[in-house]
Amino acid sequence: MNDRPAIEVQGVSKVFGTGTERVVALDEASVAIRRNEFFTLLGPSGCGKTTLLRLIAGFEQPTRGQIMIAGESMVGRPPYKRPVNTVFQSYALFPHMTVAQNIAFGLEMQGFDKAEIDGRVAEMLTLVRLGGMEQRRPAQLSGGQQQRVALARALANRPEVLLLDEPLSALDLKLRKEMQIELKRIQHETGLTFIFVTHDQGEALTMSDRIAVMSAGKILQIGPPNEIYEHPSSHFVADFIGETNFLDGTIVALENGCARVRLGSGAERLATLPPGARSEGTVSLAVRPERASLAESDQEAALAGRVETVLYVGSDTQYFLDLGGGTEFQIRLQNQAGMQTPYAKGDEVKVAIPDGALQVLRD
Amino acid sequence: MSVLAKDAAGHLPGLEETSEAERAEARSGGRSRTFLLAMALGIIGIFGILPLFLALIYSFLVADTYGGVRWEFSTAAYVQLLFDQDIFDDTLTFNPAYVQIFWRSILLATYSTVASLLIGFPTAYFMATRPAHQRDFWIFLITIPFWTNLLIRTFAMQLIVRDEGVVNISLMGLGVISQPLEIIYTDFAVALGLLYAFLPFMVLPIYAALERLDFRLVEAGFDLYANRFKVLRRIIIPLAMPGIIAGSILVFIPGLGAYITPELLGGGKHLMIGNMIAIQFGSSRNWPFGFAAALVLMSLVMIALTVYARNSRQLGGGHG
Question: Of A46, A317, B36, B144, which alpha carbon lies 20 to 30 A from B220's?
Fold first, then answer.
């Protein structure tokens, strides 16, 4: 419809308590969330992701900064006057109401007439595939069904933005996979902006259009899943998402926005340089286990080490190497038909790292 | 499960010993259960059912001149509740005096219940929304009045509301009024006394219900466009309803049969059923009438509770 962001978080901080009990839950967070986007706040517990969601919903007021929803400042506006709805981690379904009454609640409060409410409740029940459950009470539903009611109750109001606070964490693995697909389908069908909070990196990578990785109250990196995975800008992001090898290197030259780095072995490779990272001197580097391989020739070799462990995991084989001096390095090779594991514990091997597989980290 | 277990025991000899042992255990469990049940039933029988049964018998006897009863069957006690019997020709004329006392008792108990609900609910809400470690302190404060005898507390109330009491002296001192307010020995004073005496019984059950309330539901209500008033009416009150009902019953029923409060604050002019019944065993020396009035009072309460329980079961469905 237009280009203005669905939500703008502008330099928002949230401090709980005072004196010795003072906790900075959110520290100068800024992010713009686009319309129709599936945006994920990802981080370990206590990183401030739920606080940010609660600030957007209006359950908390920011200590500093402001939040704009659809271009309007939300300063001092109570949750019941904000065009957002929340799917709570605990679902928070009203136990004294039926499924239909739960879904109708928000519409009733907004003063819609009965025919409109009935229509939307029926529509929502179809959307979340709970037809025939209208008269049940929440206690009579399974966890997955309760989850769907919570979703329908929030979506019935057609909010500007749907906030989802770890909605899948209470479900078992199979149901969680199902609901992930279901959520993507619903987001696609309704065309709404979703802000999804999770600590599960797999969930974040598979579902999101963009991810904000958070730690200790700060937003460390914002980007699409592949960018977050392929080009983590900080040590924390590289470590939190997927498996990573960390190396030290020295920048010897800059070429087309990339850095030529010299590794401890003396080999030089091109590495991606994130904005804000140091462009000279010694830097920390990250490389994904599947981007490295075992070198056939000395030319290819970037590093050398000894095989410590070989793990066969079906589709892949993982090699855990010791590069000397206690530095561990992990390589994951895809298994080919009829391939034998060529190396065993104790073998000396060479590691190949192609140009661009290395990532310079900010810290 | 148990059906399966029995089947297996029937077919597999190895399992029969176990089931034999289980049966023995069940028998001994049964004996101790019978014993405990007999104890409970015995206590209920001796202290509950037997006195009621005696009251029922006595209410159908004839009052003796100096108290006690004569063993002659009579329904006079029940007739007396509604009618005056002419001494000469036995004609009955309707006498509303006792009905009025019942009615006043019901009204006063209702007023004090409503007032204690209006004061008790916000109090309980305040307590339940304090940080967990502070709540015990507030409960402790609520229970402080129980440390003192009700009689003494009612006397204290008398000191506050009487013509030369704290309220009137202060108001006159401030020049708000020139004549003392007539508070003591009115229905208002009695209702105030009942409210004071039974308020904790309203606060504590509501507190218990609100303390269990999941306040995330309140957030969900706010999230779904309900303002504070609507959240209170549509979410908090319905979920606290078991506590509100328990509290109302706990205030209304003792209020209905109150004795000390109307005696001291009503000045004997504003009788409630409790005082009326007490008089029958004292100065009036009419035991059968006292028993009859007590049983009618109890029946009214039981009928009211039964009707309520029926309705709430039908309306409430499977939850609660």
Answer: A46
Tokens, residue B32: 């101790």
What ipTM does the predicted assembly reach?
0.85
Q: Is B133 exposed, middle or buried (0-12, 13-18, 19+ CB in 10 A)?
A: exposed
CA distance A162 to A156: 11
Q: Is residue B214 less than 8 Å (CB to CB) from chain A? A: yes
Radius of gyration of chain B (CA): 27
Q: Does the beta-carbon distance from A94 to B214 stay under 8 Å? A: no
Structure confidence at residue B4 (pLDDT): 41
Q: Distance from first CA to last CA of chain A, Å, rounded?
A: 40
Q: How far is CA B200 from the centre of its chain?
A: 12
Structure tokens at A93: 């379904």
pLDDT tens digits for range A60-74 = 999 999 999 999 999
pTM, two decimals, is: 0.80
Nearest CA in chain B to A93: B217
| Residues of chain A positioned with their CB less than 8 A from the CB of B224 | 80, 85, 105-106, 109, 153-154, 157
Looking from the CA of B26 toward its CB, the CA atoms found within 13 Å total 6
Task: Mutation target for B interface from A80, A136, A162: give the one with most B CBs within 10 A.
Answer: A80
Return d(Cα A62, Cα B17) in angstroms, integer.
Answer: 70
Radius of gyration from C-alpha coordinates of chain A: 25
Report which secondary-structure segment, H or E, holds A144: helix A143-155
- Which of A25, A7, A32, A34 has its CA nearest to residue A64? A25
Q: How far out from the chain centre does Cα A81 lie?
A: 28
As a whole number, the mean pLDDT across chain A is 90
Q: Summarize pLDDT for B157-180 with one digit per residue, the tens.
A: 999 988 888 888 898 889 888 888
H or E segment to which residue A98 belongs: none
pLDDT for the residue numbered B5 = 42
Phi, then psi, of A270 in degrees rounded to 5: -80, 135
Positive or negative torsion for Cα A169, A175, A176, A178: negative
**Amino acid letter, A213:** V
**Closest of A296, A351, A283 to residue A320, by C-alpha:** A351
Q: Which residues pair with A39 in a beta bridge?
A: A195, A210
Closest CA to B192 of B258, B285, B287: B258
Q: Are A125 and A103 in contact (CB under 8 A)?
A: yes
Q: Which residues pair with A268 in a beta bridge?
A: A262
Q: CB of B185 within 8 A of CB of B263?
A: no
Q: Do residues A302 and A322 make contact, with C-beta atoms less than 8 angstroms apart?
A: no
Cβ neighbours around B35 below 10 Å, total: 10
